[in-house]
Design brief:
The complex is a heterotrimer of chains A (274), B (162) and C (256). With 274 residues, chain A is an alpha/beta fold. In chain A, 36% of the residues lie in helices and 23% in strands. Chain A is built from 10 helices and 10 strands. In chain A, the strands form 2 sheets. A 6-stranded mixed β-sheet of chain A has the order 6-7-8-3-9-10, with helices on both faces. A 4-stranded antiparallel β-sheet of chain A has the order 2-1-4-5, covered by helices on one side. The longest helix of chain A is centred in the C-terminal third of the chain and has 17 residues, at 181-197. Chain B has 162 residues and is of the alpha/beta class. Chain B has 2 domains: 1-30; 41-145, no CATH class. Chain B has an 8-stranded mixed β-sheet, with no helix packed on it. Chain B is extended, with a radius of gyration of 24 Å. Chain C has one domain. Chain C contains 9 helices and no strands. Chain C has helices at residues 2-38, 40-50, 55-79, 86-124, 127-133, 138-176, 181-191, 194-220, 226-255. In chain C, helix 2 crosses helix 6. Chain C is globular, with a radius of gyration of 21 Å. Classes of the chains: A alpha/beta (274), B alpha/beta (162), C mainly alpha (256). Chains in contact: A-B, A-C, B-C. At the B-C interface, helix 1 of B face helix 2, helix 4, helix 6, helix 7 and helix 8 of C.
Chain lengths: 274, 162, 256
């Protein structure tokens, strides 16, 4: 493969000056992010700031217009199809809604990457799949179909599928959205445990401040296509910046305005009709 | 893989039915008979006019199909149409002085070759030639002949006059 | 005036782009075919989805189309006093024209929309992206088997349609209208040639490629929203129908 350029502790994923435009609107302009090896890094920000887009850049699902996206020293946008797939085998990703294959059972969903990428016989696949399902606490649900699972269970199955190939990087896209408090607690614990026991590097995209505070080693706060603050969750909480405070404390109005840009209210009401 | 067996069974049935239908279409609604064509022996006949005769048309004797027209070509040596007939092996006692004629089945039906048996003691074998042939009747020629003869009957005086 | 010209130019270049995208996609599908055939189990599953599940509608439609053909054909032919040719007329009409075309249209409505909405939903629920993330090529794993399933199923469905249709025509012509059954079958046998059957088979193979490719293209490239999936299924039916009829004319002109 390629020579080990990054040290054992250092950034595994590095974004430098990334610009990404969709539909004429710049989602990112000059984005710099470093994801350190072995840590749980959170990416936070109000909806619409392109947190999910950042994940798609890192995984090569979309390509940046400018700037570099390096994963373990490799420029993602310059990789060919097979190299990209080789890189992706080292990543696992948990999608917002699980994205389980609807026509396969829980067991087959988890076994899917193994069946696609290896020629292992069933007697070797079965223990691996059961171990991963056990790790997320759903060994008993192996024969259910995705449609029969609750939201939290579906996400845990997707997590089991994401770790079945023993990835180095695990990426979570909004893992807490739409979960009840119990499931939320389960997922928080799983993220931390998997990261530490499997020696992973985790990237968590979310806007749930409390859960992030519980799980993340470092956090980035994105707004307006740039990083506005970075540091450990407690450092962020202590920062005295209007943008950070508004987000961390959930204030309705602030640097991110409550109103979508509009002409003057009074003028529109009384002056517009001629 | 849920209910894999049912899927395989359904697919098997479907594919079987599909091929059965295809087989039906090829064998039952066309004049091709399976296995015919490579068996049997060939004889050739030269016709002045083959009309609408086509390869694959039946060759019959007293109404019994004994073979098929294999090919039709033009022979510049004789300035006639060269028709190759393939006769089934079973019908191996056709006298070699038999004659061949092209007939039409029904008023608008397809054309076929009819064999009228002769009286010879020796029989056709592969590569033989049918000496006596009678061409296809072309409807237009028939009609124009008929009209001319009618015209000739009705105005004899015109013709005699110089 | 200038605006009209500009809009015309835009819509023209738009449709050219669309044709180009379709062609590239079909090229990709065809180039992937040998490899996809190796994973035969996946293809079998899709032959079931596209073929076996369309069987009932195809057989039912075939029967009624054949019966109508028997009725109309009889009425027409007896004006010329040649109702014995009903078998020929029905068989040729079904095998060369109605079988492949009506099957393709029904297929677009039944299996094509199912394919497009399935793929569109997979796109909308991130399943396609998840496959990409698992380093599994979604075209190879998901699109190809569905495409090949359609290509395999179509000629078989068309053959079944034609066969049932001929029996339907026979039912009306012989049992109801009193055409002599011997005449019905023998005239048919005398006039229909293997080449006619093959013409129908070639047509339905081409339609299979067209319908399959359109359905998977529209589904795979659907906008990942509920509305986008709906639009993809509608577009599948409309595009397939127009393309099938267009191809039918072209193929008929070439093969006649």
């Amino acid at each position: 493969m390629q020579s080990e350029t990054s040290p054992a502790v250092g950034s595994l994923v590095r974004l430098r000056g990334v610009r990404y435009v969709i539909g004429g609107r710049a989602i990112f302009d000059g984005l710099d992010v470093d994801i350190r090896r072995g840590e749980v890094t959170a990416v936070m920000g109000p909806s619409g700031t392109g947190k999910t887009t950042m994940l798609r850049l890192i995984t090569g699902l979309v390509t940046a217009e400018r700037g570099e996206v390096l994963v373990d020293g490799e420029e993602v946008s310059r990789l060919g199809r097979s190299d990209l797939y080789r890189l992706r085998r080292r990543m696992g990703m948990l999608f917002q809604n699980g994205a389980l294959l609807t026509d396969l059972s829980v067991y087959e969903n988890v076994a899917f990457p193994l069946r696609e990428h290896t020629r292992l016989p069933e007697r070797l696949i079965r223990p691996i799949v059961l171990a991963k399902l056990h790790a997320v606490g759903l060994r008993g649900a192996e024969s259910l179909l995705p449609a029969e699972l609750s939201g939290g269970m579906g996400r845990r199955v997707a997590l089991a599928r994401a770790i079945v190939m023993d990835p180095e990087i695990l990426i979570y896209d909004e893992p807490f959205v739409g979960l009840d408090p119990i499931s939320m607690g389960v997922v928080v614990r799983l993220i931390r445990e998997l990261n530490d026991t499997l020696g992973l590097t985790s990237i968590v995209v979310s806007h749930d401040v409390h859960e992030i505070a519980a799980v993340a080693d470092r956090a980035y706060l994105l707004s307006g296509g740039k990083v506005v603050a970075t540091g450990s969750p407690s450092e962020l909480n202590a920062l005295d910046s209007a943008e950070v405070r508004q987000f961390m404390q959930g204030l309705p109005d602030g640097p991110v305005p409550f109103h979508y840009p509009a002409p003057d209210y009074a003028a529109q009401l009384f002056g517009a009709r001629r | 893989m849920r209910a894999t067996r049912a899927i395989e069974l359904g697919t098997g049935l479907f594919v079987l039915l599909g091929f059965a239908a295809l087989f039906f279409l090829i064998t039952q609604i066309t004049s091709r008979q399976v296995g015919f064509g490579e068996t049997g022996y060939r004889v050739s006949a030269w016709f002045e006019q083959v009309g609408g005769l086509k390869p694959g048309a039946p060759v019959s004797m007293s109404g019994v199909t004994i073979g098929r027209v294999e090919s039709i070509g033009y022979d510049f040596a004789e300035y006639k149409a060269h028709v190759v007939l393939r006769i089934d092996r079973k019908f191996d006692r056709i006298p070699d002085d038999s004659d061949a004629a092209i007939f039409t089945a029904g008023l608008l039906g397809g054309q076929y070759v009819g064999i009228g048996p002769g009286g010879s003691e020796t029989y056709f074998k592969d590569g033989d030639r049918i000496e006596f042939t009678q061409s296809a009747v072309v409807l237009e020629n028939l009609i124009s002949k008929f009209l001319f003869s009618k015209a000739a009957e009705q105005t004899p005086t015109d013709q005699e006059a110089p | 005036m200038r605006q009209i010209a500009r809009e015309l130019r835009q819509s023209l270049s738009g449709s050219l782009v669309r044709i180009g995208k379709y062609s590239l996609f079909v090229g990709r599908l065809l180039s992937e075919t040998p490899r996809a055939l190796l994973r035969f189990r996946l293809v079998v599953e899709q032959v079931y989805n596209a073929g076996a599940l369309s069987l009932v509608i195809i057989m039912l439609s075939g029967l009624f189309v054949g019966m109508v053909l028997g009725l109309q054909g009889y009425d027409l032919l007896q004006r010329f006093g040649s109702e014995e040719s009903l078998g020929t007329a029905a068989a040729l009409g079904l095998v060369k024209e109605l079988g492949p075309v009506v099957t393709a249209l029904l297929f677009a409505g039944r299996a094509g929309t199912a394919l497009a909405s399935e793929l569109g939903l997979m796109r909308a629920t991130d399943q396609i992206a998840a496959l990409e993330m698992m380093a599994v090529d979604p075209v190879r794993r998901v699109v190809m088997p569905r495409f090949l399933g359609s290509v395999i199923a179509m000629p078989l469905l068309a053959a079944i349609f034609s066969m049932i249709g001929i029996f339907g025509a026979q039912l009306v012509g012989v049992q109801l209208m009193g055409v002599d059954p011997g005449q019905f079958w023998s005239q048919m046998k005398g006039a229909v040639e293997v080449a006619d059957v093959m013409e129908g088979v070639i047509k339905s193979c081409v339609f299979g490629v067209a319908c399959g490719a359109i359905a998977v293209y529209e589904g795979f490239h659907a906008i990942p929203t509920a509305e986008g999936v709906g639009r993809a299924t509608t577009r599948t039916v409309v595009t397939s129908s127009v393309v099938v009829l267009l191809l039918d004319y072209m193929l008929t002109a070439v093969m006649l």
